[in-house]
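BUG: 3D viewer hangs when loading the predicted structure for this chain

Environment: internal workstation, default settings.
Expected: structure renders.
Actual: progress bar stalls at 90%.

Input used:
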Amino acid sequence: MDMATRDGFWALTEKEKQTLRLIVRGHDAKSSARCLGLSVHTINERLRDARRKMAVSSSREAARMLLDAEGGSIGAPPPICRRTR
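Structure tokens produced before the viewer hung:
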């Protein structure tokens, strides 16, 4: 991970990381919003901010970079996601 990416990773909020973890599990903005009880607009804002901080153009790329930075573990999904899937 280069310096800019590392800085971007540390700049991510926990909410942005939570959203990216759902993306890496295969969720899109709509299903992420449903899982988290948020609007699609809010999810898209989080993804846009994460892409900017990570200096990438794709949310999936940002999600993969987060996964790599966290050691390849996506952890358990939020409890609400497990009930709705």
